[in-house]
Design brief:
about 0% helix, 6-stranded antiparallel β-sheet, 8-stranded antiparallel β-sheet, Immunoglobulin-like, Jelly Rolls
Length: about 350
């Protein structure tokens, strides 16, 4: 997973402290159940840069208790069940028409970010399972997160030209829920968090068809969180994860791509018990795992030996761990990749 850094941020490895939570929205607090598309304004704590409940770019609120086109799990775009609770928010992120429509969702924080303090932003996203009659099915790259001291202004349904501080550059598409995570130190007293595709340029260049006949890049969001965290150790690389498996190109001759999982469950049930355990040896293999304090807890120079979730014989707790890997591809070129893995108990 790569990142485009628009502003200058110092990234750190953080100890998560959920006591100072500035944003929590599962789309479960609402003034009414939706009965049609475009009723984002029914959800408490949600804002629309396009302007009021009559904006031209209106996100969709879906709920199990809704009627008509706003109900779950089968929507006009995909079949989807919430990550948490009964409701989700749907976003027409972009399309390939001559007059494209782009939608955004914005949240107001309980209080402004404090310059110099550390924070963690987390949200879940999915495209759902597309139906045969769905206009959705485009994947978008450069999905971004904009932090601002004022609600950004969108003219009609056009693209917001402000540059997002955080950008997921890869093309994102998943039928399952994925979790995006961003850690950062605040450089401004931002009060609003907005998700969508930002900046100048032709949005068509950011779209990739996943299905024949797809016209829209449509995404569902749930479980949005932002909280203050305590600084503990300088991170080796930025932590910006969209929850997608990471491909290792040409690890073994004859295989084009090997995918690294973003989670594993070392519960000794014989399924997904070991992280990064290859079936064949790989030259130059050196795998290291670190806890959130930057301490080395596992190292392997044998591709057939992965991490079993233990450190010095003791079972490690459920948490997110940072890994880095170096290896030689079939041409003998050194490769290096990094990421995070969620240990689930």
């Amino acid at each position: 997973m790569s990142m485009k850094k628009v502003l200058t941020f110092t990234f750190i490895l953080l100890f998560l402290n959920a006591t100072a939570q500035l944003l929590r929205n599962d789309f479960e607090e609402y003034q009414a159940i939706p009965n049609q598309l475009g009723q984002w304004f029914l959800v408490h704590g949600l804002l629309n840069p396009s302007g009021g409940d009559q904006g031209l770019a209106n996100p969709d609120y879906f709920h199990y208790g809704a009627s008509a086109e706003a109900d779950l799990p089968e929507t006009a775009y995909s079949i989807i069940s919430p990550k948490n609770g009964q409701g989700v928010m749907g976003l027409h992120v972009a399309d390939k028409t001559d007059l494209p429509k782009q939608e955004y969702i914005s949240f107001e924080l309980a209080q402004p970010l404090e310059i110099g303090k550390s924070y963690h932003l987390q949200f879940s996203w999915s495209n759902g399972k597309r139906t045969a009659v769905s206009p959705a099915g485009l994947a978008v790259s450069n999905l971004g997160v904009l932090l601002s001291d004022q609600l950004p202004h969108q003219i009609g349904a056009s693209r917001i030209t402000d540059n997002a501080q955080f950008v997921f550059e890869n093309s994102l598409y998943s039928e399952d829920w994925r979790e995006a995570n961003i850690t950062f130190i605040a450089t401004e007293n931002s009060k609003f968090v907005t998700v969508g595709v930002f900046g100048d340029g032709d949005v068509k260049s950011l779209l990739k068809s996943q299905f024949s006949g797809a016209q829209i890049a449509y995404y569902f969001f749930d479980a949005v969180r932002l909280w203050e965290v305590n600084e503990s150790h300088v991170m080796r690389v930025p932590w910006l994860s969209d929850g997608m498996p990471i491909p290792l190109n040409n690890v073994i001759e004859g295989r084009e791509v090997v995918y690294v999982p973003n989670s594993f469950t070392p519960n000794e049930d014989g399924k997904n018990d070991v992280f990064m355990e290859m079936q064949e040896e790989v030259l130059g293999w050196n795998l290291e795992l670190y806890n959130r304090w930057g301490e080395l807890i596992f190292k392997s120079q044998n591709a057939r030996t992965g991490w079993d979730g233990k450190y010095q014989g003791s079972v490690m707790e459920e948490d997110i761990y940072y890994w880095q890997l170096t290896y030689l591809d079939p041409e003998g070129d050194a490769k290096k990749c990094t990421g995070n893995v969620f240990l689930i108990r």
